[in-house]
UniProtKB/TrEMBL annotation:
Keywords: ANK repeat, Cytoplasm, Methyltransferase, Nucleus, S-adenosyl-L-methionine, Transferase. GO terms for molecular function: protein-arginine N-methyltransferase activity. The lineage of its organism: Eukaryota, Viridiplantae, Chlorophyta, core chlorophytes, Trebouxiophyceae. S-adenosyl-L-methionine-dependent protein-arginine N-methyltransferase that methylates the delta-nitrogen atom of arginine residues to form N5-methylarginine (type IV) in target proteins. Monomethylates ribosomal protein L12. This is Protein arginine N-methyltransferase 2. InterPro entries: Ankyrin_rpt, Ankyrin_rpt-contain_sf, Arginine_N-MeTrfase_2, RMT2/GAMT_Mtase, RMT2_dom, SAM-dependent_MTases_sf. Pfam families: Ank_2 (PF12796). CDD domains: AdoMet_MTases. It comes from Coccomyxa subellipsoidea (strain C-169). Gene3D superfamilies: Ankyrin repeat-containing domain (1.25.40.20), Vaccinia Virus protein VP39 (3.40.50.150). It is found in: Cytoplasm; Nucleus. GO terms for biological process: methylation. Residues 118-349 form the RMT2 domain. GO terms for cellular component: cytoplasm; nucleus. It comes from the Eukaryota.
Amino acid sequence: MEAAKGKEKGASNAETLIEAAAKGDIDGVKKLLESGADHLHQDERGQNALMLASRGGHDPVVELLLEAGTPWNAFDKEGHCAGDLAMMAGHQSTIDLLLEAGVRAEMVLGALERKLGKEAAGPSHEYLQQRLQYDAASERLMDADDRAVMMAWEGPLMEAHAHAVAASGGDVLNVGFGLGLVDEAIQRRSPRSHTIVEAHPDVHARMLDLGWDQRPGVRILFGRWQDVLPQLGAQFDGIFFDTYSEFYGDMQDFHALLPKLLHPDGIYSFFHGLAADNAFFHAVYSEIVKRELASLGLSTQFVPLPINVADPKIWEGVRNKYWQLDTYFLPVCTVADSALEASEQEDAN
Ligand SMILES: C[S@@+](CC[C@H](N)C(=O)[O-])C[C@H]1O[C@@H](n2cnc3c(N)ncnc32)[C@H](O)[C@@H]1O
């Protein structure tokens, strides 16, 4: 009887906490947290106190709940996290608070996972042993599980990536051939040299069938970038990276090669599909990758491009609807002025 009463009181305290958070009642929220109210509790719509405080733009309450340990990344029943609700309501300072919390949490988690070697046995090797299929119109490259490796709707994005990394000619490196969309767009810009790294035997065979090894300035390096790039000893004016079935940790490893691979005046870009099934998670990962590239001496700008892949026909027969958002943030990375100054200073000494 006593236990049941305690449980009832706990539930009603948690509901009161949600109400106080929704109103931005900081004193009420403080008192309820001190009395042990459950800040993880979600109401019938799946919303918790942090989500409601975020929707209302009540920054002091949001800060308090984050400090109390409410996770930034819980979802309500409609699939929205606190950051999505703040974004929908247009509360910029609340978005910034949640973004910072998300970035910090994910960076710590990522570092921990890497330390524990959780990503070591990645799916990449499995992928490289599967048979791939190009459809008749060359609009899709599918793996053996009906997952799309690359789709033609990305054409305009690939054109924009090629423009970013190859507009001024020079020596260009592309990692991952897929449908060859970005490589066609790079070729149209007549680069001095055009190096393509591709690991999958079926894709490599397709490249040879299409005569890519005969194209002007083209050099094909067949193998995983992890194996072929470290010993390359060349610098590029433009680099594009777009692989498949790899972890974020692989991308971090690739980025660690950039100080060697990228010419000081060069431009780096990558397919930015990080956490692309949720707008707020995507923003968190945009910030994480930007900070990590900054630690390698690169400065990143994201160029927003509208994108519309809502038509279900586009995804017919595809198991992985890997894009859900209406804006693509195209990354353009250059060597930061501070990194250039530091290297000039080193040369002078
Ligand atoms: C998404 S597709 C690239 C699409 C390409 N940007 C285009 O414009 O069509 C990814 C490509 O990366 C290749 N790939 C995957 N892992 C790789 C690795 N570790 N090294 C080199 N290529 C890899 C895949 O076989 C695939 O051809």
